[in-house]
Design goal:
40 strands; about 5% helix; 6-stranded mixed sheet; about 550 residues; mainly beta; plasmid
Length: about 550
């Protein structure tokens, strides 16, 4: 901002500080301080520079205008051509925020460069000085969809493309915006048979107790899927939907097929005992013979999602529903590390090379690993007395630790503890006792980070034997992703399946172990078993 006819001089300048807005949605997966060490800012902590290839670093102590976080813009990575490759989940959409300040050029045209994301140019002949002048913070943001397991950013100042001097960047932020279509765990066509619609296939009505069914051939407004809304279950009824424990989004589909005035049908709906619709009146909301949807979150802790439709205290006539969807609230991967090994692509995403650790040693084997299709993930380990300090934005996370016993063959030969953010999450943990040797298993737990660093400490503990170990680490932004339940095509109830407790000596060629890692790709797992839990039986979700 200038006055005095647009002239730039100390006497005529007015300082305007603009704090870049944090995205309204999405999780900050990465904040990287290009060319510098970790720094705490008003936006949160930025980790030390990493994931870069090529380029050189530079630092100044000059003050930076347009920001209260001078230190973030006083360093840079620069060069004629350099790149960053961030491990991410394939198929997801991300927002990238690039932070710049010109700390070298003194006039427009002295630094001109391009930036490409996933091979597509997002900044063309970019000139920081031309935009904001020298020693002034500015940001550029854009959205990108990643098809593989790396988000690639390429910085170049090639003369053939109009480049001058060197490309540069001061800091990088990457936010996960998630997938545009959530995974459907279960879809039911209430009151009728299986139906294919524009949003997917709805299974025949099932899992219901009570109520009656009704259908019409009247046209339904507000939808291209009339048939989905032309049937219903009505009366006082309950759906008990078998789903793995976790967080879900429930969508209820309605259309009033019988009444045509407000107040003629009023009812309540409860999910897991909590009222989600109170004195609900379809006609009051949208009128008769018109499609509408109600959406709400729900958490399941007992393997069954209960939806109860009742008249309630203000009820008139009978409750009803046309269709039900249960959608998976999938977590976003914040960080995946392959302990003791190099970067690796797996069936459920890319794991970065081992880093952020202090202490311990690494070990590898070529022995096959049971209970997984990703043997290589479990064939390496970090072992000893060690700590991982993972740079993540403050907030709640789910941590998933991957283990396989590569050395010992009997229970009691390796016992250790694990603490997350100072709180014990595994005590006297014995991998062989749980699943046997050379068999994959995982442990999952929630953790909240308040200081920008997620600390995972592996120690022998009071009952320790030999040395702690881990094969891989995942940090997720929400509750652990769980396998989707494939709806049965008939209305028969989903039957439990029992499996005895025992130490598994299974190999991949003859059977599966008692404990299996969660399926990474629910859509590829059409058959699931539910395993009951009273001793001497165990409750598991197994994929065959």
């Amino acid at each position: 901002m200038t006055d005095n006819g647009g002239l730039r001089s100390p006497a005529s300048q007015t300082t305007l500080i603009v704090n870049p807005a944090t995205p309204t949605s999405g999780t900050a997966l990465y904040r990287i301080h290009a060319g510098g060490d970790q720094v705490t800012t008003s936006l949160g902590p930025f980790a030390a520079d990493r994931y870069a290839s090529g380029g050189t670093t530079f630092t100044t102590d000059q003050p930076i205008a347009g920001t209260q976080d001078d230190a973030l813009y006083q360093t840079e990575r620069y060069g004629n051509a350099f790149s960053y490759a961030f491990p991410v989940s394939r198929g997801q959409q991300y927002q990238v925020v690039l932070h710049f300040a010109e700390v070298y050029a003194t006039q427009a045209g002295q630094r001109v460069f391009d930036v490409a994301a996933e091979g597509n140019k997002v900044l063309d002949n970019y000139d920081i000085y031309s935009k904001v002048g020298a020693y002034t913070a500015t940001t550029e943001r854009f959205t990108v969809t990643v098809a593989d397991d790396e988000l690639n950013l390429d910085f170049s100042s090639l003369a053939s493309e109009g480049g001058v001097d060197n490309a540069k960047v001061s800091a990088i932020e990457i936010y996960a915006l998630g997938t545009t279509t959530p995974t459907a765990v279960l879809r039911l066509n209430a009151g009728s048979g299986q139906l294919t619609t524009s949003v997917g296939t709805f299974a025949a009505d099932q899992y219901a107790a009570g109520g009656s069914v009704f259908s019409t051939d009247q046209a339904i407004a507000g939808t291209e899927d009339d048939a989905l809304y032309q049937t219903e279950r009505y009366g006082r009824f309950t759906y008990n939907l078998p789903v793995p424990n976790g967080q879900y989004t429930v969508k209820l589909h309605f259309a009033e097929l019988y009444w045509n005035s407000t107040g003629q049908r009023v009812f309540d709906v409860a999910a897991e005992g909590r009222t989600v619709l109170n004195t609900y009146d379809i006609v009051k909301k949208v009128g008769p013979l018109t499609a509408t949807i109600e959406t709400f979150p729900v958490t399941v802790n007992d393997g069954q999602l209960t939806l109860a439709f009742t008249p309630g205290t203000g009820g008139v006539d009978q409750p009803k529903v046309s269709a039900i969807e249960v959608l998976e609230v999938a977590p976003t991967t914040v960080l995946r590390l392959k302990a003791g090994g190099d970067a690796l692509n797996t069936s459920f995403g890319r794991f970065a090379a081992d880093q952020f650790f202090a202490g311990g040693s690494d070990f590898a084997t070529d022995q096959p690993i049971a209970g997984t299709e990703d043997d290589a993930l479990y064939q390496t380990e970090r072992y000893g007395n060690f700590v991982y300090s993972l740079p993540v934005p403050n907030g709640p996370y789910t941590v998933k630790l991957h283990f396989a016993e590569l050395y010992w063959s009997a229970p009691g030969q390796r016992l250790f503890d694990v603490a997350a953010e100072g709180a014990s999450v595994l005590r006297a943990y014995d991998i062989v006792k749980k699943v046997g040797p050379l068999t994959a298993t995982t442990e999952t737990f929630p953790v909240t980070v308040n200081d920008g660093v997620l600390s995972l400490a592996f120690a022998p503990g009071a009952a320790g034997v030999d040395q702690p170990k881990v094969s891989a680490i995942e940090v997720l932004s929400a509750d652990q992703a769980l396998p989707a339940v494939a709806a049965r095509s008939s209305a028969s109830p989903w039957q439990p399946f029992l499996w005895p407790n025992r130490r598994s000596t299974a190999t991949k060629s003859n059977s599966f172990p008692t404990h299996l890692p969660m399926a990474a790709s629910p859509s590829s797992c059409p058959l699931l078993f539910r395993v009951k839990s009273p001793t001497p039986w165990s409750l598991h979700w197994a994929r065959l």
